[in-house]
Design a protein that fits this description.
About 30% of the residues lie in helices and about 15% in strands. It has about 200 residues and is of the alpha/beta class. It has a single domain (about 5-195), classed as Amidase signature (AS) domain (Amidase signature (AS) enzymes), CATH 3.90.1300. Strands 3-5-4-10 form a four-stranded mixed β-sheet, sandwiched between helices. A hairpin with a 2-residue loop joins β1 and β2. α5 (about 165-175) packs parallel to α6 (about 190-195). It is globular, with a radius of gyration of 16 Å.
């Protein structure tokens, strides 16, 4: 059986909960899960969903997650998403990563701390693969800005991925991320979820 499949189902077609259970049960490694999703994101790079990757760091994080699981006992309580890859909207602060929200004036800004919502994902054991595109200042129902350009729908490059969390919608829809962190004030998660055929909450 390929490392990219378990019980005949591709790792990139499984939910974050399924992947967490498989990794915890040592039926698949976090390294294999992370690698499968990185390969998928690279295959769909034309969508421009991920605008700042951390693939090298994610691979290191996955190896550390596997080592933690290997060293744990049956009674140990492990974080619920340990070893599961994710993506995070670029407008949400992540230490050391860009945080321009598509605004040219903030193109070179790098975060010095991580936002609480993103930190909760990290604390739950999730492994960020990178940051996803957004409309400028998260204001528009289409994901395009003068820093990163446009994010296209993974089903049809002539169509929009929606906005403002269109990068997240496209990353999840393409199978490049089982779960993503976006933001929504006036439909910024709901619109991309609808446009890309995924669940947004």
């Amino acid at each position: 059986m390929s490392a990219a499949t378990v019980a005949g189902t591709a790792l990139t077609e499984r939910s974050a909960g399924d992947l967490a259970a498989l990794i915890r049960a040592r039926e698949v490694s976090s390294v294999d899960v992370v690698e499968a999703h990185i390969e998928r994101l690279q295959r769909f790079a034309w969508t421009n969903a991920v605008v700042a990757d951390r693939f090298a760091s994610a691979r290191e994080d996955a190896a550390a997650a596997d080592a933690r699981i290997a060293g744990s006992d049956a009674g140990d309580e492990l974080p619920p998403l340990l070893g599961v890859p994710c993506t995070i909207k670029e407008s949400i602060s992540f230490e050391g990563m860009p945080n321009s929200s598509g605004l040219v004036a903030r193109r070179d800004f790098r975060c010095t701390e991580t936002a609480p919502a993103a930190q909760r994902l990290l604390d739950a054991g999730a492994i960020p693969l990178g940051l996803t595109n957004t409309s400028e200042l998260t204001l528009w129902p289409e994901t395009e800005n003068h820093v990163y350009g446009r994010t296209d729908n993974p089903y049809d490059p002539s169509r929009s991925a929606g906005g403002s969390s269109g990068g997240e919608g496209a990353a999840v829809a393409s199978g490049g991320s089982p779960i993503g962190l976006g933001s929504d004030i006036g439909g910024s998660i709901r619109v991309p979820a609808f446009f890309n055929g995924v669940f947004g909450h």
